[in-house]
Design brief:
The complex is a heterodimer. Chain A is α+β, with helices and mostly antiparallel strands. Chain A has 23 helices and 35 strands. By secondary structure, chain B is an all-alpha fold. Chain B has one domain (30-409). The two termini of chain B are 14 Å apart. Classes of the chains: A alpha+beta, B mainly alpha.
C-alpha cells in the first residue's frame, strides 16, 4: 500500500500545486487583457505605437514647374532622374563586392565608399542622387541578370537651365532636394514645387514590404509653371553689351543692366555680370572679373556672385537721382523751367563746400540746362527750395524709404537720412544723390514714375502662373502704388530729360541713337563708404533712360560699379552701353526709327553692289541707297570695281568711288584718329582715300572724340577701306 | 504487453474488472492511455506547429534565403521523431526507467560541465552543445528530465525518510545545488528558476515538511535578489529594464517592447491567423521565446486564453494521471513532468508579457527548437505510460474513439 500515492500527495498536487498554477495563469490573463486594451506609453496605446513603427510612407515627388520667358522659351525645366540607394540588410552575402564594383564603375563613385555602405548595418544608404536614365537602365540590367537584391532606385527630378548663364541671379537655382535656393526658384518655390504625393502602407522592420494590402495612395500634384516678364532676346542684348563693358571698363564690383516696361513695372531684362552657369552654380567666375570678392572665403564669394545686384545691393545713384529732386520741385512749383541758376564751380552749405563736377563752373543756366549740365550747385538750390519736409515727402512717395516688393528674394532696405535727422548739409547732398544708397530697382521704378505720368508701379518678374496643364491660374498685371507727380509735371520732365540726352548743343550725347528720341539721365557717384574704408576714390557710374521720348514705353538702366580703366563718368561709360543695347532693342520692341533730315545725311547704310553695272545705273542705285557723294575713276563705261565694297555699313556722307578701268591696288596706312572729332576724322580719312564708319552714330556733338578705331593706326589697308570709329563725349552731360 | 494491447477488445469497459485488482497493488495496471490527455497533447502540438509556421515564415524568408518553410520543416521532422519516441515510451513500463535515473543524472551533470567548455554565443553565454552543423541541444533540457527521474525514484524509494531534514531537505537541496551551480556558470537563470521550481514541487508533493520550504524559499529568494541586483550586468540589468520598458528600444528593452507592441496590436480577437505584423523582423526571437506574443497579436485575448486554458487542462489532466498512478514513483514522475510544462509555460508567458524580467525561456509545444520538442514529446510518452498503469482508469465517451484511434494506428 505504501506504493500507492497517499491522499496527502494527491491533495498537495491537485489542490496546492494546481491551485498555484491556476492562480499564476489567471494573473497572466489579467496582464494580457491589460496590455491588449489599456496599457499606454506616452499616451499612445501599444497597438497604435506598433502601427506607427510599421507605417511606411513613400513620397512621390511632384514635378517642379517650368520657368519660361515671356515668349514661352524655357529658362528652367525639370527632368526625371533617379536616386540610387542600397538596402545593406537585403544584400545577399557575397554580392557586396560585385555590387560595389559595378556601381563604382557605372556611377563614378569610389569603390571603397560603396563597399562600406554595402557592409553597414543600416537599412538605407544613398549611393548617388540625380542619376540619369542610361545609367539607371544599366543598373536595372545588372540587377536582373545577376539576381541582385538590395539596390533600389527612386524617382526624383533634376533641374535643367537651357539658357545656362542668362539672368542667372534672377532665375536662381535649386538645391539637392529641389528646393529653390535663389531668385525666382526661391521666391516662387511653393508655387513651383507642387505637393508631393505619398503611398502609405506597412513595412517590415527592414524597410521592405509586408504581404498585406494596406496601401493607400495619395497622388502628387505637380508644381505650377511661371511665365516671366523677361525676354530672352532683350536679355541677350544686355548680356552682349555688358560682356564688352566687362572687357573695357573692368568693373571691380560688377555691372548690370535692367530693362523695364515703363507703364507696367515688368522687368524685361536683368543682366548682371559676371554671372554663373545655373546648371553648375558652385563654379565661380574668374576672380579678375569680380575683384571685390578677392580674399573672401569660398562661401562668401559664392554668395557675392549669386547676389542679385539690382535687388539685394544698394548703390549711390548720384546725378540720376536729380530726376526725383527736379520733378518734385516742378510738381510743388518751387521751381519752374524758367528758374535761373548760377554755378561758379562750387557752393557752400552750412560748413560744407560742395564742388560741381566741372570745377570751372557752369555759369548762368536755366532749369533744363542745370539738368543737362548735371550741375550740383543748382540742384542744391532746387533741394533747398523744397525744404526738408517736402523733399522727404517726395523721397518717400517715390518709394525710396520702402522696399519695392519686387517678386525676388532678398530685397534690401535703402539707406538714407531720416526726416527728423535732416540738416541743410544732408538735404543738399541728398538733392543730387550723394548720401542715400538705394537699390537699382528702386531707382528705375522712380525714374519710370517720373516719365510715365507719375505712376509708381511695383516691379515684377513673373507675369503668369500656369498649372501643370498650361492653364493660366494667375496673371500678374501692373500694380500701381500711387501717383507721385501729375501728368503735366511728368510731361515737362520728359521734355527736360530729352534735352539732357540731346546735350547742351542739341547735337546728341553718348546715349543718343539716330532715329530715336531718347530721354534719360546719367549719374556718377563717389563711393563714400569705400572712400572712408580704403581712402581710394572709386565711383559707381550709371545711366537711366527711356524711349520713345514723347510717350516712354521702355526704360533701361545701365550700372557700372567701380570701373578700373580710369574713366568713371556715367555719361562716358554707361550712356554708350545704353545706346548700344537700345539700338538693337528698340526695333525688336517694335519702335521704328524716325530720322530727322540731319540724321538722314549721316545715317549709315549698306553700300549696294555696283560692279558690272553701267556708271549711270550705279549712280542711280547709290542715289536710292542715299549715297550722293560718288566719284568715278577712269573712263570706261562699266563699273569694274568699287570702294567701299558692297556689304559695308558706312555713313551715307561717305564718298563711294567707282572704278571703270583696272587700277593698281594701293595700300594705305591707317592714320591715328583717336582724340579727333567726327568731322576731323572724316577729313583725315577722306584725305587718304579711306572711309569712316561711326560706331555710335547718335553723337553728332563736336565734343565727342574718337576713343577707339578699327583697324588700328598703322595697319595697311586697301584704298577705300572702311575704318570704324567710336566717338564719345567725356563728361557728365547727358 | 504490446501484443496484449492489440488483442484487447475495443471497449475499454473491460478495465472495470482489473480496476479492482489493481487497487490491491498487484496488477500490472490499465492498458489504455489517457485519451483526454493524449488529445490535449495532439492539440497543443498541432496548435504549436501552426503558430510556429505563422510566426516564423517571414523571418525564415528573410534570413534563410527565401525559404519560408525553413523553421517549420525542421520542427515538423523533430515532431515526427518526438511522436515516435512518445509512443515508444508510452508502451514501456515507466518503472523500467528507474534504473536509468542515476546514470542519466550523472550523464546530464557531465554534459553540464562539458557545456561550460563550449564556445559561447556573442554574449559569452554557454548553453548549447553542438553536434555537427545541424544538431544542437541544451544539456539543461536533459537535466530537467534527469532531475525529475532521479527525485522521483529517490523519493518513492525512501518515502519514510522524507520527513527528516537530512534526507528530505539536505540531500535534495545538495543535488539541486550542484545542478544549479553548474547552470549558474553558463549562466542560465531561467533554467535555474525552472529547475528549482520543479524540484520544489517534487519535494513538496514527495513529503518534505512544508516548514522547511519557508527556509528554502528564503534562501532561494535571497540568492535571487543577490543575483538579480548585485551580480554583473547580464542578470542585474534585466531588472532595471524590466522596470523601465521602452527606455532603450534599440537594444536592451527591444525584445520586451516589441513583444508588448505585438500583444497590444491584437486586441480582443487579434489581427487574424497569419496576419501578425510584428513578426516581420520587429520582434526578435519571434519563432522562439516570443511566439506567444504572436499568438496574442494574431488571435487576440481569445487566442491567448485558449492557449492558457489548454495548458491548464494539460496540468489538470496530468496531475489527475499522477494521482491515479499505481505507485508513488509514477505519481512523482508524472507530477514532475507536468509541473515542468505548466511552470515553463507560465514563466514564458510572464516573460512575454513583461510580468517578470526578461530571461530566455521557451513555450513548450510552440517555441522553435527541434531537440527540445522531441524531448517534450518523449516526456509525454512517459506521462502516457503512467496513465496506462492507472489505478482507476476513468471511463468516458472519449475512451471509445481512442480505441478506434489505436486500431487505426496499430
Amino acid at each position: 500500500m505504501a506504493m500507492v500515492p497517499s491522499r496527502k500527495m494527491k491533495f498537495k498536487l491537485n489542490v496546492v500545486v494546481l491551485g498555484l498554477i491556476v492562480c499564476g495563469f489567471l494573473v497572466l490573463i489579467g496582464r494580457i487583457v491589460y496590455i491588449s486594451c489599456f496599457a499606454e506609453i506616452d499616451g499612445v496605446k501599444y497597438g497604435a505605437k506598433a502601427y506607427n513603427q510599421q507605417l511606411s510612407v513613400d513620397n512621390i515627388a511632384a514635378n517642379r514647374g517650368a520657368i519660361y520667358d515671356r515668349n514661352m522659351i524655357p529658362l528652367a525645366q525639370s527632368a526625371t532622374v533617379w536616386t540610387v540607394s542600397l538596402a545593406p540588410n537585403q544584400i545577399k552575402k557575397g554580392d557586396e563586392e560585385k555590387i560595389s564594383r559595378f556601381l563604382a564603375e557605372t556611377l563614378g563613385v569610389e569603390y571603397e565608399k560603396i563597399l562600406k555602405k554595402c557592409e553597414s548595418k543600416t537599412k538605407y544608404e544613398i549611393v548617388k542622387k540625380k542619376v540619369e536614365k542610361p545609367d539607371v537602365d544599366k543598373i536595372l540590367d545588372f540587377i536582373h541578370s545577376n539576381h541582385i537584391l538590395g539596390i533600389h532606385m527612386v524617382e526624383d527630378t533634376k533641374r535643367y537651365y537651357p539658357m545656362s548663364n542668362m539672368a542667372a541671379q534672377t532665375i536662381g537655382f535649386v538645391g539637392g532636394d529641389n528646393q529653390g535656393l535663389l531668385g525666382i526658384e526661391l521666391s516662387y518655390n511653393k508655387e513651383l514645387s507642387g505637393v508631393a504625393g505619398k503611398v502609405t502602407g506597412v513595412q517590415n522592420a527592414k524597410g521592405g514590404p509586408m504581404p498585406y494590402d494596406y496601401e493607400s495612395y495619395y497622388p502628387s500634384q505637380d508644381g505650377n509653371s511661371l511665365v516671366l516678364s523677361l525676354d530672352s532676346t532683350l536679355q541677350h542684348y544686355c548680356d552682349k553689351a555688358l560682356d564688352e563693358v566687362m572687357k573695357v571698363r573692368k568693373p571691380a564690383n560688377r555691372c548690370m543692366a535692367i530693362m523695364t516696361n515703363v507703364n507696367t513695372g515688368e522687368i524685361l531684362a536683368l543682366s548682371i555680370k559676371p554671372d554663373f552657369d545655373l546648371n553648375d552654380p558652385f563654379v565661380l567666375p574668374p576672380i579678375d572679373q569680380f575683384p571685390a570678392i578677392e580674399g573672401k572665403s569660398e562661401a562668401d564669394a559664392r554668395t557675392a556672385v549669386w547676389t542679385n545686384k539690382a535687388v539685394s545691393e544698394t548703390y549711390e545713384p548720384g546725378s540720376v537721382f536729380k530726376v526725383v529732386t527736379g520733378s518734385a520741385a516742378l510738381e510743388e512749383g518751387t521751381m519752374t523751367l524758367d528758374s535761373k541758376f548760377h554755378c561758379n564751380g562750387s557752393c557752400v552749405v552750412g560748413d560744407r563746400k560742395f564742388g560741381c563736377w566741372r570745377t570751372s563752373g557752369h555759369g548762368s543756366e536755366n532749369f533744363t540746362q542745370a539738368f543737362i549740365n548735371s550741375c550740383n550747385p543748382a540742384f542744391i538750390k532746387i533741394g533747398a527750395s523744397l525744404g526738408p519736409n517736402l523733399f522727404f515727402r517726395y523721397f518717400s512717395m517715390y518709394g525710396m524709404t520702402e522696399k519695392t516688393k519686387i517678386d525676388l528674394p532678398g530685397e534690401t532696405d535703402s539707406i538714407y537720412v531720416k526726416e527728423k535727422d535732416f540738416t541743410p548739409v544732408s538735404l543738399a547732398s541728398e538733392s543730387f544723390g550723394q548720401t542715400e544708397a538705394i537699390t537699382a530697382v528702386q531707382m528705375i521704378s522712380a525714374f519710370n514714375a517720373v516719365v510715365n505720368g507719375g505712376y509708381l508701379h511695383t516691379p515684377h518678374v513673373v507675369n503668369q502662373v500656369l498649372d501643370s496643364n498650361g492653364n493660366v491660374l494667375q496673371t500678374i498685371g501692373p500694380q500701381t502704388k500711387r501717383q507721385v507727380i501729375s501728368e503735366t509735371t511728368s510731361n515737362t520732365m520728359r521734355g527736360v530729360l530729352e534735352g539732357v540726352v540731346k546735350g547742351i548743343d542739341g547735337k546728341g550725347t553718348n546715349a543718343s541713337i539716330p532715329g530715336y528720341r531718347i530721354i534719360g539721365k546719367s549719374g556718377t557717384a563717389q563711393k563714400l563708404k569705400h572712400m572712408q574704408q580704403t581712402g581710394q576714390k572709386t565711383y559707381v557710374s550709371s545711366f537711366v533712360g527711356a524711349i520713345p521720348a514723347e510717350k516712354p514705353q521702355y526704360s533701361l538702366m545701365v550700372l557700372i560699379d567701380t570701373p578700373t580703366d580710369g574713366t568713371y563718368y556715367g555719361g562716358t561709360i554707361a550712356s554708350p552701353v545704353f545706346a548700344k543695347i537700345m539700338r538693337e532693342a528698340a526695333p525688336y520692341l517694335g519702335i521704328a526709327p524716325e530720322y530727322t533730315q540731319d540724321e538722314l545725311e549721316h545715317i549709315s547704310a549698306i553700300v549696294p553692289a555696283c560692279e558690272g553695272m553701267s556708271v549711270d545705273e550705279a549712280r542711280g542705285k547709290l542715289q536710292r541707297s542715299g549715297f550722293r557723294n560718288v566719284e568715278v575713276v577712269g573712263s570706261g563705261g562699266n563699273v569694274l570695281n568699287q570702294t567701299p565694297k558692297t556689304g559695308n555699313n558706312v555713313s551715307r556722307s561717305n564718298k563711294v568711288i567707282l572704278y571703270t578701268e583696272n587700277f593698281e591696288n594701293k595700300m594705305i596706312s591707317v592714320p591715328n584718329l583717336l582724340g579727333l572729332s567726327q568731322a576731323e576724322a572724316n577729313n583725315v580719312l577722306a584725305g587718304c582715300g579711306l572711309n569712316l564708319s561711326v560706331e555710335n552714330s547718335g553723337v553728332q556733338s563736336q565734343k565727342a572724340k574718337a576713343v577707339s578705331q578699327s583697324p588700328s593706326p598703322g595697319e595697311s589697308v586697301l584704298r577705300g577701306a572702311v575704318v570704324s570709329v567710336e566717338f564719345l563725349t567725356d563728361d557728365e552731360t547727358g | 504487453m504490446r501484443k496484449s494491447i492489440r488483442t484487447k477488445p475495443l471497449k475499454p469497459s473491460f478495465n472495470f474488472k482489473s480496476v479492482g485488482k489493481k487497487s490491491t497493488g498487484f496488477s500490472s495496471g490499465s492498458r489504455a492511455m489517457d485519451p483526454v490527455f493524449l488529445i490535449l497533447v495532439f492539440i497543443l502540438l498541432a496548435f504549436g506547429l501552426v503558430m510556429l509556421f505563422s510566426a516564423s515564415f517571414a523571418r525564415a524568408y528573410y534570413y534563410k534565403q527565401g525559404n519560408s518553410f525553413h523553421f517549420i520543416f525542421k520542427q515538423s521532422i523533430h515532431a515526427a521523431l518526438g511522436l515516435l519516441a512518445m509512443f515508444f515510451l508510452s508502451k514501456i513500463d515507466y518503472n523500467k526507467l528507474k534504473k536509468f535515473a542515476m546514470p542519466l543524472f550523472l550523464i546530464s551533470l557531465c554534459l553540464l560541465v562539458v557545456v561550460l567548455f563550449m564556445k559561447g554565443d556573442s554574449n559569452g553565454i554557454k548553453r548549447w552543445i553542438q553536434f555537427g552543423p545541424f544538431f544542437q541541444f541544451q544539456p539543461s533540457e536533459l537535466m530537467k528530465f534527469s532531475l525529475i527521474l532521479l527525485f522521483s525514484s529517490m523519493i518513492s524509494a525512501n518515502q519514510s525518510k522524507m520527513k527528516t531534514f537530512g534526507f528530505g531537505v539536505l540531500l535534495f537541496s545538495t543535488l539541486l545545488g550542484i545542478v544549479v551551480s553548474l547552470m549558474y556558470l553558463e549562466p542560465h537563470l531561467s533554467g535555474i528558476i525552472l529547475m528549482c521550481s520543479i524540484a520544489g514541487v517534487m519535494m513538496f508533493v514527495g513529503g518534505t515538511r512544508p516548514r522547511w520550504f519557508i527556509i528554502l524559499f528564503l534562501i532561494a529568494g535571497a540568492a535571487l535578489v543577490y543575483i538579480l541586483f548585485f551580480k554583473g550586468n547580464y542578470m542585474g540589468g534585466r531588472v532595471y529594464y524590466w522596470l523601465h520598458p521602452f527606455s532603450d528600444p534599440i537594444k536592451n528593452t527591444m525584445q520586451t517592447d516589441q513583444s508588448l507592441l505585438a500583444i497590444g496590436s491584437g486586441g480582443v480577437f487579434g489581427l487574424g491567423l497569419g496576419r501578425s505584423r510584428q513578426k516581420f523582423m520587429y520582434l526578435p526571437e519571434v519563432h522562439n521565446d516570443f511566439i506567444f506574443a504572436v499568438i496574442c497579436e494574431e488571435l487576440g485575448i481569445v487566442g491567448a486564453v485558449v492557449v492558457i486554458v489548454l495548458f491548464l487542462l494539460f496540468c489538470y489532466k496530468g496531475f489527475e494521471i499522477a494521482s491515479k498512478s499505481k505507485d508513488k514513483f509514477g505519481t512523482l514522475l508524472c507530477a514532475g513532468i507536468v509541473a515542468q510544462f505548466g511552470i515553463q509555460a507560465m514563466f514564458n508567458i510572464a516573460v512575454v508579457t513583461a510580468t517578470v524580467p526578461n530571461t530566455g525561456i521557451s513555450l513548450p509545444f510552440f517555441s522553435y527548437g527541434g531537440t527540445a520538442l522531441a524531448m517534450q514529446l518523449a516526456e509525454m510518452g512517459v506521462v502516457l505510460s503512467v496513465s496506462r498503469h492507472a489505478l482507476t482508469p476513468k471511463l468516458s465517451g472519449i475512451s471509445r474513439p481512442l480505441g478506434k484511434l489505436r486500431k487505426i494506428r496499430g
